[in-house]
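Let us work through a complete example step by step.
Step 1: write down the sequence.
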Amino acid sequence: MHQPAIIFDDTYFMRIALQEAQKAYEAKEVPVGAIVVSNNRVIAKAHNQVERLKDATAHAEMLALSAAFNYLGGKYLQDCTLYVTLEPCLMCASATFWSKLSHLVFAANDTKLGYRTCSHNPLHRQTKVRAGVLQLESQQILQSFFVELRK
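Step 2: predict the structure and record it as tokens.
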């Protein structure tokens, strides 16, 4: 029987990032997931671990970037894409600048703490951005988390 071809597109990879966000949700962390992809291969996965590690910098993006550097054995991610379920904050966006990240793809906007609320763009000038991939799915998990948190 013929197997359908897997299409490695932004939606495919964002679904993997959403699986990481679900892990954060289950661990009672703000449900944000991130993955780094190189040549259609996931080289790093992470989710928020701020509470678990008692580290305000343990955002999904920071952990995924660190894992990707480790995997590649270098300090630049020039041929890589970071998929994250929520618009990165200024800290995480600045980290992508220093990594020379090629592409940033995120799901939901963060109108309070997202990097786009800043007066300057912290991303590297060569980083291409795509927003809104599986935005509703990401918003749903975030909304569910904060509803539960307020109970």
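Step 3: interpret the result. The longest strand covers residues 41-47.
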